[in-house]
Amino acid sequence: MADMMFMRSLGIVVIAAAVVSLLGRKLNAPSIVSYIVAGLVLGPMLGVLTPGDGGGGVSGVGDLELISEIGIVLLLFLVGLELSLKEIRGVGMVAVAAGLGQVVFTAAGGFVLSLALGFTVVESLFISTALTFSSTVVVVKVLDQKGELKQLYGRIAVGIFLVQDLVVIVVLTVLAGLGSVEGEAGGLTVGSGVAAIGKAFVSMGGLLGATLLFSRYVLPGLFASVARSAPAAMVWSLAWCFVLVEVAHLLGLSVEIGSFLAGLSLAQLPWRHDLRRRVHPLMNFFIAVFFVTLGSKMNFAEAASEWEAGLVFSLFVLIGNPLIFMLIITRFGYTRRTSFYTSVTVAQISEFSFIFIAMGLGMGLIGSAINSMVAVVGVVTIVASVYLIIYNRPLFEWCERAGLLRFFPAASEDAGSEHHEPELRGHVVVVGMNAMGRMIAERLVERGETVVAIDNDAQKLVGLRAFTKLGDIAYLDTLLEAGLPSARLAISALKIDEANRLFTYHCRAMGVPAVVHGFDRAVIRGLAEAGPRHIIDSKKAADDLLEALLRRAGVAL
Amino acid sequence: MLAIMLTMLAAAAGLGVSERFRVPSIPLMIVAGVLLGVTGWMGGAEDLRDILLLGLTFVLFVLGAELDLAVVGDRARAAAGFGLVQFVLLSAIGIGAGVVFGFGLRAGLYIGLAIASSSTLVVVTLLRRRERFFEPFGRMAVGVVLLQDVLVILLLPLLIGVGVEGSARGLGATLGLIGLAWVCKRWLAPMLILRLERDQETLLLVVLATLFGFLGLAHGLGVPVVSGAFLAGIALSRFPVSGLVRGQIASLSDFFLAVFFVTLGVFLGTITHEIDLGLVIVHTLVLGGAMLAALAALAPLARRFGLTTRASIEITNLFAQCGELSLVVVLLGLGHGHIGEQVLGTVVLLAVLTMSLSPLLSSEELTWWILQRLPGAGGAGGGEGAHSGHLVFLGCGTSTRALIARASAAGQAVVAVDESPDVVRMLRDEGIEAIRGDGGDPWLLRRIGLREARLVISTLRRRRDNERVIRVAGGAPVIVRTFEPVVGEALRARGATVVVESDAAADRFMSWYEGFLHEASADGSQGSAERGDGRGGSSPGSA
Questions:
Q1: Residues of B numbered 265-294 whose beta carbons fall under 8 angstroms of chain A's beta carbons: which are they?
Q2: Cα angle B22, B117, B103; round to 5
Q3: Of all helices (H) and strands (E), which one includes residue B455?
Q4: Which of A18, A222, A260, B231 shows the smallest number of beta carbons within 10 Å?
């Protein structure tokens, strides 16, 4: 069969990620940290994974590059799905100002700091560029895990990262130009820089416009034909996502921008929540590979020689970057809390930083000690910033109490509004809108109950007077989003045995009484073992009516 | 990334056509892949092998994880008997074909194993869609596909292993892995996975680590990695682990299945120049014809295993296809250099054709058409006029049987028809006239004197069967039990009295609910307080 090297590399990465995650759970470590640690163990520590392609019995991360890249695509696709254009537009101004402002200030600050630490001008250029950009993937992954992408600070952060993504493209283009002309003419670099900026913004504008037109006039009709089959709809959506990624690539934009726009363009479809739940496990798999390989690629060989500088730069990114952001964002009418939450999201360097440094190393403009130093800064800032984002609330309270934030002007209320989903309590969840499920849902509504009806076929939810949720209960999130833990009762009318048993299992785990459909004698015993509060034996109910009819017809029974 | 885009586009095209025309998506995705492969945009065949292997392992993993013997229940023996005979017969045809077509014995063995295996995915999807999963026919069909899956996994190492010693070692290692899978299924997986219920990210990684762990072990022990993937699935197939795992791998399997089938098609598309297409078509048609003939000959055997004539035709037609495991078998054969592209092309074309035709072949219309043309159809029995003024029960489920017993005990003449031999035996034990047969069969209905019946009670599931019952009954009153209100309306319009199961069940539930509320309020007023909270402030209607 085929060469097993790829499967071997993937297997090692997945098993290491699982083992470290399980251990990390004991220490309450966020998944990203576990993945990066797994990567550090596999790469720099054990040498099981090498940065390039595999060979000679050693697995290489080069084989996994596509998997990692798909992880980023899916992550940004999910972010797009989560947000609507309106929500992004609302934070557009602050995102542009903060995104660009921070780039300028951090680059300048980093440059001066590098010079002060004794690096040459060219080295300082590379170092400051590497320190400038924050990692979209890290931040979005943590926000997604926290369920706070839709919060105001989450949206501002996403906007900032998109702006920075454009800047990254420009910088990459300029650096590539710098490489090709080997740094000979500054005028040429400026010219190519202006051209690159123009091209990036025109491409971005064109792609955004085309995507919006598609989203409005083409996609709803196109996707209507597969809307009733969730797996088909998922494959269609992913196909659309990869088309936009490829178009973005052709236009010289990043895969992040392409996939984000793909998600955004599908965000108005009625089944977007179901799609999000389906793509989520897929993204989790691919992104885990991304982070583990990221960790494994770190090269600390000469880190010891520049450890002091590494420490200084780490502190600069961890403290300096958020400070710059606080100064900018608070000027846009946001509260100190929102500004603070947004600011701590940028306290790390990006995976692009490693690419810049690798380019500089490749061109012979910087030494490998700087490469190792940036790896240290990367690991320190990514890990620390993950904790900063996760614990942003207590950290803010502490800073506020200590009076550290009093220098920042702040509004008493945010310029944008936070989202508040209506909270359900004491309601009844009814799953499976077949004839029986619909009838039960309607009768409960008539009785005055608050009902959430769930089905994975949008057409079956049409015309119901209950709250409706499109989704598959194989995904726990569907039940959680229907407020199952706070429901008074949960009913499944489905005629799928294992789904009913799983439903009962989840309900019991959440302490909610479950009622399930015993649609066939063959399944009732197995269902009873799962422990529902009640089983609806629909055939028995009908046969009791049948008996009454027979009696009425004069049949002796 | 371009390759992924093209793959997803091809999969989307296949799925789109599948949705539009209600045919299985697998053959369409393969065809879309072939068309893509012919264009040459996807690069050479060598580049595809990694992704093909990854897709392949997911296909097998999903098959293993879906393996649930509990569904088969009391049909296990029948499924084992029928499945085994069918497996042996089709394998023999495949081996014979391999030799006759000049591919040699070894290639024949691969062809035999490939055509003896049907598509679990297609069979399960069709049974679910037609709501026939829990009928005796459905459970037997599930039993047969599961048996086929297990046999293929056990026999693959024998085929791939070189020499007697290699084969024996392969089989021994497979049995060792089966033991490990069993230990995981019984103890390890529940212990680990149930703790991770709410930590879905770690849960997913542990599931995938199990898969890769088994793959690594299989590879190390010289067992085909596909067997490792299948056994990893089995290790996670015990409820409730299986349910939690499904939530994590459902979309991964949708994604990787699409990638696998398209890539397989692309792979074929890139090697078309090495295939004599005319010969492939001829071989496919001959092999397909032999398969159909053999299966038709098996219909009487299915009847002996307790199915009605109609169900026997349905089950043999349902299995007239080769599926995803067939593709796995020939891919492995090609990978090991045991078969050539010609054999691969033949089996893939056969799989594409038979899977595409599967919904048609197993359709109610075709089954009925064949049934009417069987020797003895329409003439069986005679015996009209032997009954009159009796009650006829068509379909005798558990609660209906209680009614039948009471009516009979009250001195009412009763004739009961059911397709399950066990049910018929139980009724006969109680002294009730019970006939094993198809309640939708007009000749049988005439034979039991439907027109002369005092009352006909039908709990048959299929609408057309009930329409036939009403037609044959003429003026005799018919009561039909049906789940769907829409079907109820249609049957009512034809003159039947209808009991709608869903309405009756909803009524029954509502009375239970009143009791539940009462109980809850007696336990404490928490329930009513929560009800007040829940109703406030928001209006229903958003999807």
A1: none
A2: 115
A3: strand B455-458
A4: A222
Q: 3-state class of A457 per DSSP?
A: coil
Q: Does A485 touch chain B (CB under 8 A)?
A: no
pLDDT tens for chain A, 557 residues: list them.
Answer: 446 788 899 999 999 999 999 999 888 888 989 999 999 999 888 888 887 766 666 677 777 888 888 998 998 899 888 877 777 777 888 888 888 888 889 999 999 999 999 999 999 999 998 898 888 889 988 998 888 888 889 999 988 888 887 787 777 766 665 555 444 444 455 676 677 778 877 888 899 899 989 988 999 888 888 888 888 999 999 999 999 999 999 988 888 889 989 998 998 888 888 898 999 999 999 999 999 998 888 887 777 777 888 999 999 999 998 998 888 888 888 888 899 999 999 899 988 888 778 888 888 888 888 888 999 999 999 999 999 999 999 999 999 888 887 777 766 666 555 445 567 889 999 999 999 999 999 999 999 999 999 998 888 999 999 999 999 998 888 999 899 999 999 999 999 888 999 999 999 999 999 999 999 888 888 899 989 999 999 999 999 999 999 999 888 87
To the nearest whole angstrom, how far is the Cα of B395 from the nearest Cα of chain A?
12
Residue A490 belongs to what H/E stretch? strand A489-492
State the Cα–Cα distance between residues B402 and B428, nearest whole angstrom. Answer: 13
Whether residue A27 lies within 8 A of chain B, CB to CB, comes out as no
Which chain A residues are within 8 Å of B542, Cβ to Cβ?
467-468
Judged by CB atoms closer than 8 Å, whether chains meet at A7 and B15 is answered as: no
Q: Which residues of chain A are within 8 Å of residue B12 when distances are taken between CB atoms?
A: 232, 235-236, 239
What interface predicted TM-score (ipTM) does this complex get?
A: 0.87
Q: What is the DSSP letter of B72?
A: T
What is the DSSP track for A48-79? SEESS--BTTBEEGGGGHHHHHHHHHHHHHHH
Phi then psi dihedrals of residue B422, to 5 deg: -65, -45
Distance CA(A272)–CA(A471), nearest Å, equals: 10
> Where is B23: in which H helix or E strand?
none
DSSP B497: E
Which residues of chain A lie closer than 8 angstroms to B499, CB-CB? 542, 545-546, 549
State which amino acid sits at residue B427. L
Flag whether the pTM goes above 0.90. no
